[in-house]
Design goal:
α6 (185-197) packs antiparallel against α7 and α10 (281-294) crosses α11 (301-310). This protein is α/β, with parallel strands linked by helices. It has helices at 5-13, 18-25, 46-68, 130-141, 160-174, 185-197, 201-209, 226-241, 262-269, 281-294, 301-310, 315-332, 338-344, 359-369, 374-378, 384-400, 405-411, 417-431, 435-449, and strands at residues 29-33, 38-43, 73-78, 150-154, 180-184, 213-217, 245-250, 272-276. The longest helix is centred in the first third of the chain and has 23 residues, at 46-68.
């Protein structure tokens, strides 16, 4: 067996959710080394070979290069007879004894995959998320009593996953007898597919329908997955009918997720739907201050305000910029000052005079200008009251950001890139002859530059 492979698997295991690793990565076996830097990887069947190659091929190649110091290209091949790696030794048979009390359902946060840093105590509340925070806290205190399901939606990196984990932490603390399942939509889908392939559908159903609290992250990825949607619909109904709490997160409103069955849209919207949007600069400063305090580091107000103004795409990137700053200050053995921020992070952060406008900011500004909501901008409503501002927003996104047509389409309700291309072309064409449109764009551009 290739001696590098166990190191590769150890590296991958640290980067992949346990359920995903067990389903797709653990069964892989190293094959023979081929010419031109290629190496075979053996999988159980064609389905696994295609799925792993498309989703984890680059990650595997990177881990192999890190472990061996050699660049390698992996070729995936089906071999059902591949000798499996030796399993861990089986535990010694326990002596016959009287029945012991059962262990608590949830022994620790790690048992259900909770991240320690994502709690209500570490969540910074502002106007952008106060409603979502209050609803989440209410559900955590009294599951299945008030808001069921609770549906939290908002852009990438704004705190949806944080609230999901915070709810689970609180329920685990206050109601340790309840059985909790926190899972991503991708993991649910892969487990469902695996249950079909292995003829274990009944075990799969029992696993999900016997719990008290179900938390699913990024529900929008069910879009277009017909079989998964059907299974989740029945899981949802079983839990809801048994008065079990369901909490979901998504980047869109239920009505805005394309290729989602109408009966699922209806189920998702029948409880409480709350949104999270990009925090204002004061809240971003509070987030930075709290993060720094957790790390035992003091940052001055001018540094915090500079970072908060420079990074306004999402909270995740804001915290990432702060972590990078801490690391650089430590390596350079220098105090955190304005000069260090500007010098060391100049290629990552954009200062107040040169910052790039975010898509989220464009959507909110255009919506306010035309007296509609950001949700209207991202919706499928075809009336000119909504379609004109939507096209203007898409045009400004292309002009004022570095985002590609596919990226813009995704944040405008998962639209195809050709829709964005058409919208930008239409606005550009009208701009040559429509003076009112030119004035609108000028006003919006000035608003976004301030």
């Amino acid at each position: 067996m290739d001696k590098i492979w166990p190191q590769v698997m150890t590296t991958i295991q640290k980067q992949i959710a346990p359920q995903i690793y067990d389903l797709w990565l653990r069964p892989l076996r190293p094959g023979v080394k081929l010419a031109n830097g290629k190496m075979e990887v053996l999988t159980k069947n064609d389905f696994s070979a295609e799925y792993v190659r498309d989703n984890y091929g680059l990650l595997l190649e990177s881990a192999y290069q890190e472990a061996s110091g050699q660049k390698v290209r992996l070729a995936f091949r089906t071999d059902p007879d591949a000798t499996p790696l030796a399993p861990p030794p089986a535990p010694e048979p326990a002596a016959v004894q009287t029945k012991q009390p059962e262990a608590p359902v949830n022994a620790s946060p790690a048992d259900i995959g909770l991240l320690d840093r994502y709690t209500f105590d570490t969540f910074v509340v502002g106007d952008c998320n106060s409603f979502a925070h209050a609803a989440a806290a209410k559900v955590a205190d009294t599951p299945a009593k008030f808001y069921n399901p609770l549906y939290i939606h908002g852009g990438v990196g704004l705190g949806k996953t944080h609230l999901l984990h915070a709810i689970a932490h609180k329920i685990l603390e206050k109601h340790p007898h309840l059985k909790i399942k926190l899972i991503s939509s991708e993991t649910f889908m892969t487990m469902f597919v695996e249950s079909i392939r292995n003829s274990t559908a009944n075990q799969f159903k029992e696993q999900f329908r016997s719990i008290d609290i179900l938390l699913v992250d990024d529900i929008q990825f069910f879009a277009g997955k017909t079989g998964t949607q059907v299974e989740f619909f029945h899981t949802f109904n079983a839990l809801y009918g048994a008065n079990k709490q369901i909490i979901l997160t998504s980047d869109s409103l239920p009505s805005e997720i394309e290729f989602l069955e109408e009966r699922l849209r209806s189920r998702f919207a029948q409880g409480l739907v709350v949104d999270i949007y990009m925090p204002d600069i004061e809240t971003r400063v509070a987030i930075l201050k709290k993060k720094a305090l957790q790390e035992g580091i003091d940052i001055k107000d001018d540094v915090a305000f500079f970072l908060a103004d420079a990074v306004h795409t999402n909270v995740r990137e804001l915290e990432g910029a702060l972590v990078r700053l801490f690391a650089l200050a430590s390596m350079e053995n220098e105090p955190i000052t304005m000069s260090l921020v500007k010098e060391s992070l100049r290629n990552i952060l954009r200062g107040p005079d040169s910052r790039q406008t975010s898509i989220d900011e464009i959507q909110r500004t255009v919506a306010a200008y035309y007296k509609i909501t950001p949700q209207d901008i991202r919706s499928n409503k075809r009336s000119r009251l909504f379609s004109h501002p939507r096209q203007v927003a898409m045009y400004l996104c292309k002009q004022l950001t570095d985002s590609s047509y596919p990226i813009i389409g995704k944040v405008f309700g998962n639209r195809d890139h050709t829709t964005v291309l058409y919208a930008v072309g239409q606005v550009a064409k009208k701009l040559k002859v429509n003076k009112n449109l030119a004035r609108e764009l000028k006003a919006l551009t000035e608003m976004l530059s301030n």
